[in-house]
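Figure S4 source data
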Amino acid sequence: MRRRKILAIITCAMLIQTPFAVQASMPVPDLLPIGQLKLDESSAEETGQISGNSAEEKAETAQDVLDGDAIGSSALLISDKTAEDYELAYERAKNANWGYTNLGIADVSDNLNIRAIAAEDGRLVGKLPRNAACEVLDTDDTWAHIKSGSVEGYVSLEYLLTGVPAKFRAEELAVTVAKVATDGLNVRAEANTESEVITLVAQGEELEVAAVEGDWVKVLLDDDEVYVSAEYVEVSAQLATAVTMSELLYGQGISDVRVDICQYAKEFIGNPYVWGGTSLTKGADCSGFVMKIFQKYGVKLPRNSRAQANCGTTIKVSEAKPGDLIFYAKGKTINHVAIYIGNGQVVHASSPKTGIKISNVSYRSPFKAVRVLYD
């Protein structure tokens, strides 16, 4: 009898152990997100990589953080990683979306209104351009509380991508920029110090990166490819952010027609740049954009920027009012035009990648200013 009891106990023990062995060998849902996520800027610096648009350059997973160790629940039983290691992996993966924890992307055809309160009649505090990014702080069934750039407020949830769709959209939209880290950076035609200086760019301005070539960074200056020294710029991947109301409003003493022209021009922010184009919706280049904007107000301008620069009255850039024209040059040859909109900013059809956008008037050295409105 005693022998039978012992055999029964051994048999039960073997039966109990069998499911555990099977369970440990079966695939178990991961505890941490391991899909491809973007490296934030600090992670890119640690790995010695320059942020770019390709997934190979920027992708990192929580599993990568842990040196390739499995991070499923079964692996927790055998991994030599500490709880702190897993917490670090999770935090880095969670915050790897271009600096956003809960990324949102404006899914609109033009601009998404940002309001002070979650109501349709709430005061406007800014606008989130099409495909611009934001941090989603909270949501209900109708509204999302967001922060984008220096703007915080509420947007309609109906027009905001979040979660996985937002990440997929961001993959397509992220732009690699070079932020100028010195005052008055030389922009050169070729990647050497003997090359012609085309213009100067002020500290803090951001230039879109086309390629990194050793000690030089090829950047897009409107629709030209030019070069800056890699020593004086900080390269990172970014998403567009909200426009504040101060960027949309004007100072005292500005005539109605000037305000109307600037407001009308800004309706087309985000629309495409097309070389030789004159359509405000389907695509225009810099001079085609300016020509069409002023045409609506009875001002006839020539088709190209050099001819437009000979119109009206030349004024000092410092004297420009909203509605005046600002011209830029490659060397001494005018090759770009923008509309001054006040507050030290211009709106212009910049390049095929950025389309129609707002920039600081000093994003490159202004060559001249012209007044074609006499009010």
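Figure S5 source data
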Amino acid sequence: MKLQGDYHTHTRFSDGKNNVIDMVRAAKEKGLREFAITDHSINKIINGFRGRNFDRYQGEIESARAEMPMLVGIEANVVSTSGRIDLDRRMEGKTDIVLCGVHVMVIFTPWAFLTFLLPNVFFRLIHWTPQFMRRRNTNIVTRAIRNNDVDVWTHPNRYVRLNVLEVARVCVERGTLIELNGKKISFRPIDFEKMRALGAKFIVNSDAHNTQSIASVARVEEFLKNCDWEQSDIINLNQTYTEYKNAKSTDANQDGNPGAEKPKRGIFGRRN
């Protein structure tokens, strides 16, 4: 599987092992046409990105554009039951791609800590999640995607169990891509096929935390051997993310139907 771009990677700005320029040069050596750095956002407790470092972070990524086409990205966290995510206001208008997923080691609101995090940690320990908790998790994640400008839903179903089809419906409405994560896929081939039937579009990412793992997606290749799919379902096999977004914008303008209007960058974190 040859990727045109890898859009989920981490550096020393959060929990990655390498600096920005080393990651970029490794991506270039692997033949990628476009690359994104998407370090963890500010509510991650261990090795989370610090908002005060954003200008330096942005500057290093933009400087790396001398090497290859680059995107400034963030992997945001769901932090409240109302679907709030943790992007700092100083990041307003400065991110090219926003990923969002559920992580465990995150600063949640008190209510989310009690009713979302703690129950999910318990149910994960006993390897069973009841239906009421799956419904709660589904509602929280769908609110996050509906209420924010999320470009990619990362590692679906990995840390909390939910109804991936219900979230996929919202992703289709909002134009949010669903990630096939190179480290682990936590849903079944039949779920993938049902999401595809809903009209969902997917993106394959490595979730690399070091230079060696960039564009490493062997697990995705094995997963797709058990799925009915076409190359057009996965946006970064035949084009870059930027090409995909530009083509989508052109099509919407020609049709006179731009679809669901997403909030502008920077409203993240202002919701209660």
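The chain has a mean pLDDT of 92. Helices lie at 20-29, 54-63, 110-125, 131-147, 164-174, 189-198, 218-224, 241-255.
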